[in-house]
Amino acid sequence: MTTVDNAVREGVGASTRRPDGTLKVRGEFAFSSDLWHADMLWGATLRAPYPHARIRGIDLTAALALPGVYAVLTQEDVPGAKRYGLEIADQPVLAMGEVRYQGEPVAIVAADHPETARRAAGHIAVDYAELPPVTVPERGRLLRRVPVRTGDPRATAEVVVTGEYEVGMQDQAFLGPESGLAVPAEDGGVDLYVATQWLHVDRKQVAACLGLPEEKVRLSLAGVGGAFGAREDLSMQVHASLLALRTRRPVKMVYGREESFYGHVHRHPAKLWYEHGATRDGDLVYVRARIVLDGGAYASSSTAVAANAATLGVGPYEVPNVDVEASVYYTNNPPCGAMRGFGAVQACFAYESQMDKLAGALGMHPLDLRIRNAMTSGSRMPTGQLVDGPAPVAELLARVRDRPAPPPPSTPDLRALPGGVGNTTHGEGVVRGVGYGIGIKNVGFSEGFDDYSTARVRLEVIGGEPAVLVHTAAAEVGQGLVTVQAQIARTELGVERVTVATADTGVGSAGSTSASRQTYVTGGAVRAACQAVRATLLARVGGAEIAGGKVLSPGGAVLADLVEAIGDEPVEETVEWRHRPTHPIDPETGQGDAHVQYAFAAHRATVDVDVELGLVKVVEIATAQDVGRAINPLAVEGQIHGGTAQGLGLALMEEIQVVDGVVRNPSFTDYLIPTILDVPPMSVDVLEMADPHAPYGLRGVGEPPTISSTPAIVAAVRAATGQALARVPIRPEHITG
């Protein structure tokens, strides 16, 4: 490999500012909901009011009679495949004789004004026959069961603790609702501008439903207002495209906040039964667990979520005997799928709660028990997979332990107390607690999935200067991937002027922006494409290196300025890049090298709890995480802050309330997310222990903070209150009861 000038400004390792940052804080950034076309129509969706019902008839007459209405479509108007899905094509484009969850799309409307479209949807008469909903997962239909078994299934231990835990349904709560613009094309196809996480898998599903070849469906990424997994599945993509092709007019669809709650998947609610056995000295002997996930009405990515819950179900610990089984079921509850942490979140809450319970039974400090059993490089997962990269579990725990503790409040400042300026307490009844958590997460897609990314890199002369254009289909959803691609190009080619093209389907797939994979996989693709460009250029001029805008000989002498070397012949290379392969797991034992990389994060939470009113104030969070190599340290810290905040939300406030299949709180009035007043000061300790198998040694960053922050906060509340707290989110009555 040739060397590069790492001193190039804004290259790998620099804290590069986001190009969209200033626009976003000023409210000037163009999100997908801001898309506009001069002669566009507006789309609206009629959704089912029942979680389970048979459709006996649909009357469109009144809707079609409204002035300004251009089209009203039902499942009969879908020209291609009637169903779609990420892994299993089981979700109807529009309801087909039966609705299986509250909010399922039944019909769509295009009109010349958004209010007209909504009114027309309300004029559609649907004759429903309600059916009893299945809302308990074990009474539903099994979607997938994943066992992971190793060692002696009959192992016994001197000290045994058991626990039953529950995780509520969390929403991704992104701020930009589902939206996009479909424009009919002259070739009979459609151009779709949309906020998504995976352009090519969207195109595949949309084209199938439209009955078109994929090349006639072109997608471009519009401005994304957050994602966190909820944009992996289709929402309005097919609907807007159907309406555009029917009316031959551009059609824009924008969900309101309530509709957004119905229009995307959520985190799987879970019930988890765990048993841990250990020696009296604190060595783990066995872990047995049963995990039940509610997949809701359609499959989405539930099969993969169940696999993650099972394969990561004992945590970052060495356990010789494991019997874990994760099952996911269809129900008539809202569909569930990808959300940051993807199966590892639910399991981590349970196994970390168990580690605290076991430490109590042994009379050990919870951190000492964790450090004693921490996996290291060379450990084996319960699946039998060798952990062949750094696994600094004990060091991460020690680092959060050794951070200075936050001082007690010196003055009775109401803003620093539970209840805040609500004036519920002046310090009486307030107890402080400290808790710890650590988690493990896979990076990238698993179980033999062909996980790759494509990058096209062009080096040319523009205005007398060397310039680089990077083009991938990788979705920037707020994680900072645009800066990463530019940083890698600057480092590899020694050129400061780098432009990252808008992501679209005009280049090969980059896979999904999920599983903490894009910096690894698309970063790897951009790096490889840059290396291919460099090799082509150096072959042209006979040099050996590119650095600081110069072509150098092997001895370092300048052979040519880059501008001279490139001349009028730009160099362009497209590379499809893959990480090392993964493999399916054995369906009976769960054995196999399922994952490409593991990531770890630890948290220490300090909380003040008003034990009389059940109110919690998170005072401070200390966190440590190994990121392998921080490509953009500023962005890494932002990811850790954001992920920790979502974990805090799950611990203390975030839950979609579903009763008999009906969502009771589809709004940010009643579904609460942490605000700046809820998120405490954070002490962030970033380790850079290079993974020898990854580009630059990097390790995925985005998900681990969400995984271990929740159990750490709950452990701190337990320490303050003495309550068992086996369910998240914690409610006041759990503390006071």
From TrEMBL:
Record-linked InterPro entries: Ald_Oxase/Xan_DH_a/b (IPR000674), Ald_Oxase/Xan_DH_a/b_sf (IPR036856), Ald_Oxase/xanthine_DH-like (IPR016208), AldOxase/xan_DH_MoCoBD1 (IPR008274), AldOxase/xan_DH_MoCoBD2 (IPR046867), AldOxase/xan_DH_Mopterin-bd_sf (IPR037165), Xanthine_dehydrogenase_dsu (IPR017609)
The protein's enzyme class: oxidoreductase
PANTHER family, sorted: XANTHINE DEHYDROGENASE, XANTHINE DEHYDROGENASE SUBUNIT D-RELATED
Domain of life, source organism: Bacteria
Lineage: Bacteria, Bacillati, Actinomycetota, Actinomycetes, Micromonosporales
Enzyme Commission number(s) from the entry: 1.17.1.4
Molecular function terms, GO-annotated: xanthine dehydrogenase activity
Protein name in UniProt: Xanthine dehydrogenase subunit D
Signal is among the record's keywords: no
Region feature Disordered, mapped onto this chain: 402-422
Annotated ranges, domain Aldehyde oxidase/xanthine dehydrogenase a/b hammerhead: 26-132
Keywords from the named record: Oxidoreductase
NCBIfam families: pucD (TIGR03196)
